[in-house]
Amino acid sequence: MKFKCSREKLLNGINIVSKIVPARTTMPILECILVTADDTGIKLMANDTEIGIETSAIEADIEETGTFAFESKIFSEIIRSLPSNEVSLETDEKFLTKIKSGNSEFKIMGFNGTDFPPLPTVEKENKFEIEESKLKNIIKRTIFSVAAESSKIVLTGELLKIKNSSLEAVAIDGYRISYRTCKVGENSNDNEAIVPAKALNELSRILTDKGDGRISVYYTKNHIVFETESLIMVSRLIEGEFLKYEQIFANENTTSIEINTEEFLSAIERASLFSKENKKSPVKFNITPERLIITSNTELGESYDELDVVHEGESLEIAFNPRYLTEALKAVEDDKVQVQFMSNLSPCIIKPIKGENYKYLILPLRIKG
Amino acid sequence: MKFKCSREKLLNGINIVSKIVPARTTMPILECILVTADDTGIKLMANDTEIGIETSAIEADIEETGTFAFESKIFSEIIRSLPSNEVSLETDEKFLTKIKSGNSEFKIMGFNGTDFPPLPTVEKENKFEIEESKLKNIIKRTIFSVAAESSKIVLTGELLKIKNSSLEAVAIDGYRISYRTCKVGENSNDNEAIVPAKALNELSRILTDKGDGRISVYYTKNHIVFETESLIMVSRLIEGEFLKYEQIFANENTTSIEINTEEFLSAIERASLFSKENKKSPVKFNITPERLIITSNTELGESYDELDVVHEGESLEIAFNPRYLTEALKAVEDDKVQVQFMSNLSPCIIKPIKGENYKYLILPLRIKG
Predict the structure, then answer these.
(1) Which of A141, A159, A188, B240 is disulfide-compatible with A128, CB 3.0–4.6 A?
(2) In this predicted model, what pLDDT tens digit does every residue of A319-329 receive, in sequence order?
C-alpha cells in the first residue's frame, strides 16, 4: 500500500472512526483502525463487533492499493503531530510502515488488513431519511435517560420507531421516560428498532448540527445502518419488546402549570445543592394557584424558592429526585414549559405549551412523614 | 452577624480564598471559610495551617458585626446559585444562618468564628515590591520543575532570592533547574526564602496578568507575606539551605545552537509519541554543523525529524527525557532560543538568544550501546 493525501482529511476520518475503537480487548486487531486504499481513495474503518464505522472514500493519490490495520492511538497521534499538510504512507511486505511529512518520518508496524472483521452485510430494505441535524438533536435530547444498567436489556437501548412518516425516539430507565418525535421523509417504511445507547451516543457526536445534510437509516431484524455523505455506521440491535410507553402518557392530569424553563431549572438546582453528598434527598414542590414553592430539607441545610406560575386545577404537594428534573429541563429548548401532574404518587410530564413534540415523564418520590 | 452585599463581590472573594481550603482534615473548622463583618466591610479567610489567605474588606451594608465560619463547599455553591445580585446574610445566636436573595432563601449552620485559626502575625521587616503580572509570569514559568516529592525537603519549594533589586526564582527537582530573573522595586532588601510550591501555585492562580497592580512581599525567618490591593497571603517557609545553582550554570559550553522554539517543541513532541507508554524512552539529538536530527526508537516504532539550526562549536550526540525538554520549551515566550551543550554527559541549557533572564538546565540520559 502506498499513497499521498492531506493530513487534514485523513485526520477528519480518524476523528470519525477512532472513538469506537475499544481500549482493551481480547482481539488486539480491534484496537486498530483499518486503512484501505483502492481506486476510489482511502477508507478508514473501526469495528468493536457491536458497532462498526467506515468513512466514505478520502481523496488520495494512490500508488499502490492495499489494506492494513494500525494501532488506533499511536496512528492517530502520529497523523495529528505531522508538521506539513502532505502525508505519504508506504507499507512493505513485512508490514513495516513509513509515514512521512515535511522533514519528519515515522516507522511503525502495521497488521494484515484482511484479519480485520468486515462490517456486516445488511439488506437495505426498510428505510427512513432525515436531516442529520434533526437526528442529532433528537438523540442528544433523549439519550440521557437510557438505563446505564438494567435487568431489562431493552432499557439499555433507545427505541427509534417510524410510523406514518414520523420518528419517535424513546429512552426509559425505569424512573423516567424521555420522548421526542419529528417528521421524517415521506417514503419511509413503518418499523421500529431498539438501538444500543453507545451507537447513538457515537452517532450524535459525529453528526453535524449545521447545514442540511441528510442521513439514510436502514434496518433489518438484527442491524441498523446509518449512512451519510461521509460515513456508514452499522450497529447490532437489541432484541426484545420495548415498554408500552403510549399508555403511560395517556392518563388525565388534574394539575397543570406553565413555568419559565430557566427559572424552574435554577430553582431546582438550588434546592439540590444539599443533595450532592446524599443523592436521594428529594426536592419538594408545593403547587398552589398563586405560586410554586420548591423546598429541600437535609442535614446540611434547607432551601426555599418561590416561583410565579400559570396554574390550572388542584393544589398539590409532590417530591422528586432533582437530577431527573434538571436533566429533562436542560434538554428543553423552549423558554416556557408545561408541567402536568395527577397525584403525588403519579409521574409528572414536562411538555411544550403547545403540541407534543417532546414529553419528559418523571416518577415522584414518596413524601415521608 | 447581619449584612447585605453584592453576590458578585462576595463570589470574587470566595474564589480567592476557597481553593486553599483542604478537602479533608482532622480539624473540621479548616474546611470552612471564615466570614468576618466589621465596620470596614466583610473579610473572607481560609487557612490550611501552612498557607492562609484573607481578602481585603468587601463593601457591604453591615447591620450587625460578627465572625462566623461556613463549610466552604456548600457556602460557595449557595452564593454561586443565588438568583439576584443582592444577598443578605443573617446569623442567630445558635449559629443558624439565613442567606436570602430574590425569592430564594437558604438555611445552614455556621460555626463560631473565634474557633478559626488566625493568620500568623508577621513582622513586615524585609520587603520587595513587584508588578502582580510579572510575579505571576515568573512563577508560572518555573514552578513546574519543583520536585513533587524529594528526600531533600528544600526541593519541594521554589527559591525566591532578592539581590541588588533583582528577583531570582529557581526550581530544582534533581534532574533540571528552571531559573528566571527580573527587576523589582529599588528599595528592596536583599534576602532569600524557599516557598512551598502549593503557596506559589495558588498565588499565581489568583494574581492577575492584566493591569499594573503591584504586590508587596515581606519575609521573616519562618513566613512570607504577599499583599495586593485585594488580598493578603501568608505562607510558612521551608527551612534549610537551597542548592548552589550558580556554579552549575557556570560551565563553559562547547556546542551551541539557535533554533525556532515552536519547531523544536513540535519535533520533540513527535519523537516522544512512542514514549507515553514507557516514560523513560529517550529522544536523541544528533547535532551537526548543518542540522539537528531528533530521533526516537522504541518497541512501538521509530521517529526521525530534521531541523535547521544556527550551529557553533563541536558536533554532538546526546539524549534527553522528552518531558523535561517540552516543559521547558513551553515556558519560553521567545520565537527563538539558544541551547548550549558541553558533552553528552553534561546538562544542556536553554536560554534566550540575548541576555540571561531565563535559563532551563536539563540533565541528559546516558545513551546505551
Answers:
(1) A188
(2) 999 999 999 99
